[in-house]
Amino acid sequence: MSQKDLIEEINSKYKDLGENPDTYLSGMRYAKPVNYWDYCEIDALLTLQKPKTEIPDESVFIMYHQVNELLFKMILSEIEQVAKTNNIELNFFVSRLGRINRYFDVLISSFAIMKYGMEVEQYMKFRDALTPASGFQSVQYRKIEIACTDLNNLIDARYKHKADEFVGLQAKIDNLYWQAAGKNHKTGEKSLMLSMFEEKYGKELLDTATEYETKNLRAVFNSLSEEDKQSPKLIKAMKALDNKINIKWTMTHYRTAEHYLESSGKPVAATGGSPWKKYMHPKYQKRIFFPELWSKEELDTWGYEHEE
Predict the structure, then answer these.
(1) Please, which residues bridge with residue 183 across strands?
(2) What band does 264 get if pLDDT is binned at 50, 70 and 90?
(3) How far apart are the first and last CA of the chain?
């Protein structure tokens, strides 16, 4: 494209916005050149690690989780694009699912950093300084789950048989599977970890549930034509996502927790105090985003290939 054509396009762009193009062109004379460190906010990024102890491996722990949160944000961005696209086309839907699957591939493989990138002795020391904080409190991950499927599919396994009795989104949120990690269901007493989480993010989670009630990935799938719903590439992408999130990612997390928490031969609770084995292992909760895509045998044996 010639310089003349470029200037004409710039003029057209700002005229269409009702702006004077000359003002913008004039401003470009004084704009600083873009550089990598300012564009990516590198200086700010590298100051975001604030360990609670002087134990070196705590910094690894913090940075690893910060990387996770950035990937969670990328995943939510892809889901949002799907949710906000009216009359979504099959290829667009599949392409966004592909992106999400690749992000989860990175998340799953990255757990090697957690499992082998810290000394058990160091971890067991600094973890006590983090109580009651827990990865459980990642609101972005909770949003991903909510944006993927109906809340009924996230109900605690003990109460799924009466999910229809929970009227309203808040009632369902109060009985989601991750509540099992922070609530005594016999007494109703909540742990400090859960209470703090709900105080900060309770309204935000309800807003997310409201926003995605009819626009979650499963709802978008069900809105497609019968022909599109039978697409092998779509079904493959959706089943891959279900498997990556609810079995592979979960089990990699589980094995890493097992590596550290049982290394001394004396099993201990997770930092938030949760009964982590039954909370995390997929065979107990059987979280499945797209149950209609799996056979009865696959549903019945969900997570059992990883049985201890």
Answers:
(1) 190
(2) low
(3) 63
How many secondary structure helices (H) and strands (E) does the chain include? 17, 0
List b or e across 53-89, with b for residues whose CB sees 16 or more CB atoms inside 10 angstroms: eebebbebbbeeeeebeeebeebbebbbebbeeeebe
The structure tokens listed for 30 are 């004084």
Report which of 288, 44, 52 is spatially closest to residue 148, judged by C-alpha positions.
288
- Class of 58-306 in CATH: mainly alpha
Single-letter amino acid, residue 243: N
Q: List, as own/partner pairs, every contact residues 20-29 make where C-beta atoms lie below 8 angstroms and the sequence separation is at least 24, other chains included.
A: none
155 has which bridge partners? 176
Residue 215 binned pLDDT confidence (cut-offs 50, 70, 90):
very high
User: Residue 213 has what DSSP assignment?
Assistant: T
- In the chain, where the domains are located: 3-31, 58-306
Q: Among residues 65, 61, 63, which one has the least CA distance to residue 118?
A: 61
Say what the pTM is: 0.90
Phi-psi region of 218 (alpha: psi -120 to 50; beta: other; left: phi over 0): alpha
Q: 């002795």: which residue's tokens?
A: 121
Burial of residue 137, with CB atoms counted within 10 A of its CB: 0-12 exposed, 13-18 middle, 19 or more buried: buried
Structure confidence by residue, pLDDT tens digits, 35-60: 999 999 999 999 999 999 999 999 99
CB atoms within 10 A of CB 131: 14
Q: What is the largest CA-CA distance in the chain?
A: 74
Cα 21 versus chain centre, distance: 42
**How far apart are the C-alpha atoms of 69 and 134, rounded to whole Å?**
13
| HEC string for 289-302 | CCHHHCCHHHHHCC
